Amino acid sequence: MTLMHNFSTILSSLQAAIAVVAARDRRLTVLLVAMWGRIARMGRRLERLVAMWRAGTLPQARARARSPRARPATTAKTRPSYPTAPDWLLRALGHHAVAAGLQLRHLLSEEECVAFLAAVPQAGRILRPLLRMLSGDPLPEMLRNKSVAPVAPVVTQGAELAGVVVLPVSHFLGP
């Protein structure tokens, strides 16, 4: 099977799970329908990148601008605001999301996918948010953002006396 077929199968099964939960739980319908569309866009972007990678027509990497881009004061279209907590989609969808997350992580470990991600860093920007939604586990090494330092444990004076290391609160929040 090809790389894009595997991505498509995983994303389609995730969309099917979203549709089932959105139909059952009216409180989540609006959010999950927006997420369904976002996953569809992720699939199209991945499909385009895989096709360009195979054809050898990837665009050249642009030099990063040193100063932040100025954004217009008003935007015609507002983006939906998605939850940012790790594994929120996993908690909303249950075991279907677990299966999709594990399949995606397995696919990312395959040789062809590793070569694709090494050649096309844009794919990491597509896959990182999806993996965060599906799992609280650390991202695979090949997808980690190199410019962001990992969060280090904080040892306060009181904690040092008690022999306690304090981690960020998000590591302790459960479903």
Describe this structure in words.
- By secondary structure, the chain is mostly helical.
- It has a domain at 3-57 and 83-147.
- Helix content is 55%, strand content 0%.
- It is built from seven helices and no strands.
- Helix 1 (3-24) packs antiparallel against helix 2 (29-55), helix 1 packs antiparallel against helix 4 and helix 2 packs antiparallel against helix 6 (122-134).
- The longest helix has 27 residues, at 29-55.
- Residues 171-175 have low confidence and may be disordered.
Keywords:
disordered C terminus, mainly alpha, 175 residues
Reconstruct the topology from this structure.
Blueprint: H1 3-24, H2 29-55, H3 88-93, H4 95-108, H5 111-119, H6 122-134, H7 157-162
Helix pairs in contact: 1-2, 1-4, 2-6
Q: For the terminal residues, how far apart are their CA atoms?
A: 36 Å
Q: What would you call the structural class?
A: mainly alpha
How much of the sequence lies in strands comes to: under 5%
Largest sheet: none
Mean pLDDT: 80
Radius of gyration from the CA trace? 19 Å
List the total number of helices.
7
**Percent helix among the residues?**
55-70%
Low-pLDDT runs: 171-175
Order of helices and strands: HHHHHHH
DSSP, total strands: 0
Shape: globular
